[in-house]
Amino acid sequence: MRIDAHQHYWLTERGDYGWLTPEQGILFANYMPEQLADAGQRHHFEHTIVVQAAPTVAETEFLLSLYEEHDSIAGVVGWLDLDSPQFPEQYAKLRKHQGFVGFRPMLQDLEDDWILRPRVLDHLKRVIEDEFPLDLQLRPRHLPYILELLRKFPTLRAVVDHAAKPFIAAGLIEPWKSQLAELAAFPHIMCKLSGLVIEANHPAWRWEDLAPYVHAVVDIFGPDRIMFGSDWPVCLLASSYDEVYEALLQALPAHLSEEAHLALFGDNAARFYGVGE
């Protein structure tokens, strides 16, 4: 099974995205499954994981309604507020839906140490007991706090979105690389090779700009703990879906086996999110 492990759908008129304003240019439009179908077929992606773009349970329910209508959606990574008294009730309700395969706090929009708040930690205990997946929307500044979290909860199952958004445009690789390696020491942490073109110097980026960061992720996590994600339609700020896919293929280490490619482009995501079984 080939899976694009990170993309989004939204309708601007829903009105709960916050960040999605006319100033976002090409992103301020509706993006729905029909618009992604051709690109998915060109690159033989049978399924996608659609990820939340709004900090509301209502948007998660909207995405789950799309899951019910479209076979191409393998699962939904929704949103829940780990610091809310309503978290246990909302989490239990969403867990009953087959399409709810994970959730993502929008950490990059929160205080850097938000993930270490007492109520957040208390609610995470339930998530860890259930071995339920968490997507981590990080920037490099968050990595020390995630490391502290993992020292408290070393069995947390999580995936780092967009490789924690390294400073590709500036050509900086440290301390991002060393901190990511510390994260990878925890065996239940995975990493998405997604969103990298947004961090490059667009529109003048080249696949060679991505290669040092892609190689670092592959070396650090190994072929069994990485996933491809297009980050469509956000990627359109810098490139087309086709360009994102082709750039990653070129930036990958040449020694990767066919088995490793199968893992990266679907098998790892299926295992992590528990889909396609």
Give your account of this protein's structure.
It comes from Paenibacillus marchantiophytorum. Belongs to the metallo-dependent hydrolases superfamily. Keywords: Hydrolase. This is Hydrolase. GO terms for molecular function: hydrolase activity. The chain has 277 residues and is of the alpha/beta class. The chain has one domain (3-273): Alpha-Beta Barrel (TIM Barrel). Helices cover 39% and strands 12% of the residues. The chain has ten helices and eight strands. The strands form two sheets. It has a four-stranded parallel beta sheet with strand order 1-2-3-4, with helices on both faces. A four-stranded parallel beta sheet has the order 5-6-7-8. It is globular and about 45 Å long. It starts with a strand and ends with a helix. The mean pLDDT is 97.
Features:
277 residues, 4-stranded parallel beta sheet, Metal_Hydrolase, single chain, TIM Barrel, globular
Layout: helices, strands, pairs:
Elements: E1 3-7, H1 33-42, E2 47-51, H2 57-69, E3 73-78, H3 87-95, E4 100-103, H4 118-129, E5 134-136, H5 143-152, E6 158-160, H6 176-184, E7 189-193, H7 196-199, H8 207-221, E8 226-228, H9 241-251, H10 258-273
Parallel strand pairs: 1-2, 2-3, 3-4, 5-6, 6-7, 7-8
Helix pairs in contact: 5-6, 6-8, 8-9
